[in-house]
Amino acid sequence: MSDKILIAGNWAIGEAAIRAGCRFYAGYPITPQNELTEYMAENMRRAEGGTFIQAESEIAAVNMVLGASAAGARAMTSSSSPGISLKQEGISALAADELPAVIVNMMRGGPGLGNILPSQGDYFQATRGGGHGDYRTIVLAPASVQELADLTMDAFDLADKYRNPVMILGDGMTGQMMEPVVFGKPRPRRYNEKYVLKGAGEGKSKFIRALILDALRMEEHNWKLVRKYRVVEQNEVRFETYKTGNARLIIIAYGIAARIAKGAINRLRDSGMKVGLIRPITLWPFPAQIIRDTAERIDRFLVFEMSTGQMIDDVKLALEGKGHVSFYGRPGGVVPTPAELAKAIVQEYRR
Amino acid sequence: MKKVFSRPRSLKSTPFHYCAGCGHSIIHRVICEVIDELGIRGNTIGVPPAGCAVVAYNYFDVDMLEAPHGRGCAVATGIKRTLPDRVVFSYQGDGDLAAIGTAETFHAANRGENITVLFINNAVYGMTGGQMAPTTLLGQTSTTSPPGRNAILDGHPIRMSEILANLEGTAYIERVAVNSAQNILRAKKAVKKAFQYQIDGAGFNMIEVLSQCPTNWKMNTVDACRWVDEVMSKTFPIGVIKDTGKGRKDAD
Ligand SMILES: Cc1ncc(C[n+]2csc(CCOP(=O)(O)OP(=O)(O)O)c2C)c(N)n1
Ligand code: SF4
Q1: What is the ipTM of this complex?
Q2: For residue A1, what pLDDT is reported?
Q3: Range of B152's domain?
Q4: Residue B214 located in a structural domain
Q5: Distance between CA A195 and CA A180 in Å, rounded?
Q6: N or C, where is chain A less crowded by C-beta within 10 Å?
């Protein structure tokens, strides 16, 4: 019997998290990620030592995660765009305290309350830290339910490895679509006990804090975090290339937009147009090198996002002025079809 | 010679940075004495706030995790649910607990989280320089209520202890003061009972402490202590506000 099961994206995250040893989840209802909170309500309390709390707000949820993480639990919270804005206080605190945690954002249309449809408008918020202060979160952008499951497991390992919050940046569509998934084997947790608060016992007491009143010490903490971020940038960049070999035009898209792009590329390839795709899987650290390297051979890029254009800034930074970059975007919860995108690509291709 | 007074084991030797006559230093000492007497130093995790007590971990010799402003009860919830056999307390000012952190406090109480909350009511925002707190008395001046708190424009002082006492999840709530030797002894008894209730699994418990802030009250220490008796405790009467008796009977 195969281990393959048909499962919706939001459930896959929950199942992968529990299998990866997540034992603390707090969340607050918001569409389009309610299925994840509900999955955790159903299943977390069955896991040994598992805690599920429906928090009174996203702020409370992320701060519960802060406490649980410091106390040694693999901890996760999830929300969608407006709720992620509220969580930023806690994400900044987690980064400052160097505590691991996984935060899921199933993006919806915005700004403001926006709508509940799939969108990619939170790229800036996710990749620039999002909250106040000089910090980064590792951002993973899955494009299928299988990848949601895999990256959720990886997210916990990355969070532990770098003692840093990790965000899974999906959207309403990846969260709600059903696809076959095979759950991978989780790796045993490697997290040094010395970072866990569990009472001093007979020994010296410890404390975890973000307040550093002395400017020079605060500066040193900032640079220490940066040194860590440099290591992340060196070791953790992930991307996929698709039909880039002989391409004359490269699409750059992530998450569900990259799926749509693949559909468009397949159509165009059928009619002889040489179009390929670079799909960033980590949005931070951003796969700048592959884009720069590709620009040695190919000088035309089209960035496709379900926003008014955010990742395009990183693409331009990566290209350092090389090549020609154009943009196609559908913000606000509009999900273009591969045919629509193909039309936009053709225009660019023929230019 | 018999030693009759010494620093509690759970209190570090770092000198307090608090202003002369500040209630925080007295309350720290009281809590540390209780931790020693219950023998729970190695088993206790504290959650200090943003507020004058933000560096409480420089004084308490127990494990501590700083909470963002107002989130003490949420952070303590995360710790306690993960390590249910540890003694977990949050330490929060009135701005922290009764303004920005009202929701976290209220819902932790409603869930009956088995934690102890030390609620330090000094009727002002101390750390940020004496602004109006949710607990500022009617007519009391502050930097943001210069003519005195006006009920129509500024609202009324909030009695959090009485409000939380209405929730099913709360097991024990008492309001105490630390303005006299007698009151300090009563405060210590209450703090000890609160920790004991937690150890007994009774549910949410909170000790509200009327705490002198001579600096922002613009009074000397003696007048500040007198003001607690003569003015502050009229709005915030001291005494047991709720006791479900769910903890050990000999806890008090
Ligand atoms: C999100 C946020 N808002 C505001 C502040 C600034 N701040 C720090 S402590 C504090 C209030 C302190 O008053 P209180 O809680 O009554 O404690 P006290 O200093 O009187 O002991 C404020 C507003 C902050 N640190 N974080
Ligand atoms: S400002 Fe008030 S609360 Fe803060 S340390 Fe001074 S006396 Fe204490």
Answers
A1: 0.97
A2: 46
A3: 24-251
A4: yes
A5: 38
A6: N
